[in-house]
Design goal:
seven-stranded mixed sheet; 282 residues; globular; 2 domains; Immunoglobulin-like; mainly beta; 2 helices
């Protein structure tokens, strides 16, 4: 169960508002970008090689004070979604690659998401036949998102690009490639196999211990799975030499102790890793 502040809207209410025509950004012509009062949303492409499938990016340029959500949105909200309506023959789209998010306080709640200019990369793969797709092949996707400030506003759009990119926009590919490359560098890799990651559970909290190869510092733990951790509770972090311990209050809604606690740890140094901590106790 998600909590919401007065003035915000649940996903169900937001969907109702959108169905009533209060918030909508959809075009049957599948433009590459749409602009709403709170964000410009666009598909961008990170390759100039027509013989290989590109990496695409869903880019949000948000107005100051507005945010969209990470894969686990936190106390409220929901992440962007994408449904591929049309791809060149033989192509397959991957999942979003999620850069490290921010903790975004909203009254008594804490959400996980992005502000400013953010790109969610999507890698494409192709069979041998797919690598020789006809020039001008269409890439079309239905996109939905929730942008929030003191209220939450849903948006949706059908966006499209051609592959190879149309001549009029090829001059922008260098910038798009830079943006997608920067976003991918912020996607946390798996924790090094030589590190030791464990979690201990009791009735009130999880203690996640990360023992590294070298000295570690303080940081923030972002749980990947919803409903396990009390998102708005302060995180206690203890660092001793090569080990960092994160004490995370359990969610009041959690009825069964998970076997594994998955998350992203972002250290204050700027490095980040995805971890999967086996849980003992309960």
């Amino acid at each position: 169960m998600r909590r919401s502040l007065p003035g915000t809207c649940s996903l169900a209410v937001c969907a109702l508002l959108a169905s009533c025509g209060l918030v909508e950004a959809q075009s049957a012509a599948a433009p590459r970008a749409v602009t709403t009062p709170h964000a410009t949303v666009e598909l961008i492409v990170a390759s100039t090689q027509p013989s290989a499938p590109p990496t695409l990016g869903l880019r949000f340029r948000l107005q100051p004070g507005w945010h969209v959500y990470w894969r686990n949105p936190g106390d409220s909200g929901g992440p962007p979604t994408i449904r591929w309506v049309q791809l060149p023959q033989g192509w397959t789209a991957g999942e979003f690659e999620w850069p490290v998010p921010e903790r975004i306080p909203l009254g008594p709640l804490v959400n996980y998401g992005y502000t400013g200019d953010v790109v969610l990369p999507v890698a494409m793969t192709a069979t041998r036949a797919g690598r020789s797709s006809a020039p001008g092949s269409a890439i079309v996707a239905d996109v939905r998102w929730l942008a929030c400030h003191d209220v939450c506003v849903p948006g949706k759009a059908t966006l499209g690009v051609t592959w190879p990119v149309a001549e009029a926009e090829r001059g922008r590919i260098a910038e798009w490639s830079r943006l997608i490359g920067e976003a991918r560098r912020r996607v946390p890799p798996k924790v090094p196999p030589s590190w030791r990651v464990t979690a201990r559970a009791d009735r009130e909290a999880f203690v996640v211990s990360i023992r590294a190869d070298g000295t570690v510092g303080r940081g923030t733990f972002f749980p990947i799975d919803e409903g396990q951790v009390d998102e708005s509770a302060p995180q206690k972090v203890d660092v001793v030499g090569r080990e960092a311990r994160f004490t995370l209050r359990r969610s009041d809604l959690l009825t069964t102790t998970p076997k594994v606690l998955r998350g992203v740890v972002r250290f204050d140094s700027g490095t980040a890793y995805e971890v999967a901590a086996p849980v003992t106790g309960g």
